[in-house]
Recover the amino acids of this structure.
């Protein structure tokens, strides 16, 4: 059995770790609330763009945008949204796993893959294995701005327009609730049908000013950007809640460890006292 | 007097929503004034001021740095850009994103080693499972 003093040092060191993890838990909890608010704040724009998109698609436009045309797939692009920092449980790993599943499916068909990476963790992971990374955006912080994403998004869209990629997927975590985040893969390009509940009269179209294709181009761009921005904001909420849960269990584990060590310490102390007494008694008997 | 619903939103937040009797917006081809029951219209906005005249005579002002304007007979939606947008500005940002990726890529091969990636993932997942198991037995 280790000496009482060593156990004490060990307990103290675990207590220090526990303080750190519980502080991180509280920080993550408050950041999560703010991230969720940001998620909600971005929703009205996304809904508005979506609605306008649905209208435009219903309007039987004579102009077919390149983003809405299906073509033979010889290369696919992925936009992978990961967190910048670690210590958030299995969040990123689960995401990469579902991405890799999808990638290897394409790989078997002989389709090559290209990546646009958002977030440090994804960058590290895909760089290690030499994925073909077209562009990246990292260190977005807790309150990302759409202007920080425009560059990376444009690279992927340009690649699609130049037929370097024939499909574009978005891989990100969706926020189910505080305890659950699930990775999801969404097809962005070509744009799939946008559903709309309300019925609109047929043969109905906007007036476009200037020409329709200029306006529709601008709209498509904003539609895609808004999807990706939403995913980024949602991923941050996921990251914070995953971190909160991970740190909570780390704090609990440290507590258990301390309890166990305390028990061992008490036993060691008692054994030392007993030994001392028996030594004194033995000594007295010998005299 | 009839009114028209107005929604002003940006990608990062909802800016304002309410109703007005008249809405003025800086469309690309010149300022437009929108009264209720306007024909459906979709246009780009240039940087400028959106004005909403309310029923009680008040006027609301908003600055937009560009975006899109959608008009339906019963609702006007301003999709405002938060970032300054111009083709060459976007291009510069894209170049930056590419350059960063290229700089990092030089250190590594370009062939994706799926097997290796999978192996690492399996390892990480196994670690996570072990941690979970430990957590359960500790209780």
């Amino acid at each position: 059995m280790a000496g009482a003093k060593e156990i004490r040092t060990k307990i103290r060191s675990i207590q220090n770790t526990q303080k750190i993890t519980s502080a991180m838990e509280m920080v993550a909890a408050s950041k999560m609330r703010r991230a969720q608010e940001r998620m909600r704040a971005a929703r009205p724009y996304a809904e508005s763009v979506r609605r306008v998109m649905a209208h435009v698609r219903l309007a039987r436009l004579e102009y077919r945008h390149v983003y809405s045309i299906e073509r033979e797939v010889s290369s696919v692009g992925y936009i992978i949204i990961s967190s910048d920092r670690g210590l958030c449980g299995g969040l990123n790993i689960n995401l990469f796993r579902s991405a890799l599943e999808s990638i290897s499916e394409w790989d078997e068909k002989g389709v090559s893959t290209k990546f646009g990476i958002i977030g440090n963790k994804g960058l590290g992971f895909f760089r290690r294995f030499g994925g073909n990374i077209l562009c990246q955006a990292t260190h977005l912080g807790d309150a990302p701005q759409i202007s920080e994403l425009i560059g990376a998004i444009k690279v992927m869209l340009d690649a699609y327009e130049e037929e370097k990629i024939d499909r574009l997927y978005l891989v990100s975590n969706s926020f189910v609730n505080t305890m659950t985040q699930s990775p999801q893969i969404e097809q962005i390009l070509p744009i799939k049908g946008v559903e709309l509940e309300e019925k609109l009269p047929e043969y109905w179209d906007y007036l476009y000013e200037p020409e329709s294709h200029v306006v529709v181009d601008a709209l498509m761009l904003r539609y895609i950007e808004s999807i990706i921005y939403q995913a980024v904001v949602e991923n941050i909420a996921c990251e914070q809640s995953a971190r909160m849960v991970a740190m909570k269990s780390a704090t609990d584990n440290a507590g258990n460890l301390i309890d166990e060590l305390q028990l061992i310490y008490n036993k060691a102390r008692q054994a030392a006292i007993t030994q001392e007494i028996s030594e004194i008694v033995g000594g007295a008997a010998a005299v | 007097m009839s009114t028209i619903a107005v929604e002003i939103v940006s990608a990062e937040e909802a800016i304002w929503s309410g109703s007005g009797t008249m809405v003025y917006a800086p469309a690309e081809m010149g300022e437009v004034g929108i009264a209720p029951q306007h024909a459906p219209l979709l246009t780009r906005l240039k940087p400028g001021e959106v004005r909403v005249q309310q029923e009680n005579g008040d006027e609301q002002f908003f600055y937009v740095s560009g975006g899109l304007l959608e008009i339906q007979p019963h609702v006007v939606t301003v999709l405002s850009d938060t970032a300054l947008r111009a083709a060459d500005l976007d291009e510069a940002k894209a170049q930056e994103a590419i350059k960063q990726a290229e700089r990092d890529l030089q250190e590594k091969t370009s062939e994706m080693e799926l097997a290796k990636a999978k192996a690492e993932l399996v390892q990480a997942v196994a670690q996570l499972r072990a941690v979970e198991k430990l957590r359960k037995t500790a209780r």
